């Protein structure tokens, strides 16, 4: 995980999402790219004037190792599950901003509710930094995938909301310091 910019040559054809609109494109092998962000479970690269997001599972196309997965204990108590959910959310990053979605203040509601004796339903309301952000669905899918992989999670209900609208005042002090604000 790094914020240092590094030039790489794409080693194989790889799928990427254009930032901020989310358009999927194919980058051919041999393309020069600059890694601008390698946080969470994806990479942000700069290619010929465009920012693109490449999934961590495709790290080999950049000559990198996939980002380390979150270490999850085998036996998680129901009491610990909510903390694990928040820890997981902190591994999800806006691809344009080197700060996780929790520190950015994008998560409005996160409830862990019992479904039965062993499984829980996670109810999440989150937003994006701008209503027209095309990366919202991609970020939401990453969150959903990571939360569904947690032990004892039977269902994840996620809603992207725009009320209240996000603004800088919702960021944590840590996020403001990281961004130099």
The number of distinct helices, counting runs of at least 4 residues, comes to 3
Distance between the termini: 22 Å
Average of pLDDT? 87
Helix/strand order, N-terminal first: EEEEEEHEEHEH
pLDDT under 50 segments (min length 5)?
none
- The rounded Rg comes to 17 Å
CATH superfamily of the largest domain: Fe-S cluster assembly (FSCA)
CATH top level assignment of the largest domain: Alpha Beta
Major sheet: arrangement of strands: 1-4-5-6-2-3
**Number of DSSP strand runs:** 9
Write down the overall geometry: globular
Indicate how many domains the architecture comprises: 2
Largest sheet: 6 strands, antiparallel
The quaternary organization reads as single chain
Query: Under the CATH scheme, which architecture of the largest domain would be assigned?
Result: 2-Layer Sandwich
β-strand amount: 25-35%
| CATH fold node name of the largest domain | GMP Synthetase, Chain A, domain 3
Q: Bin the helical content.
A: 10-25%
**Class by helix and strand content?**
alpha+beta
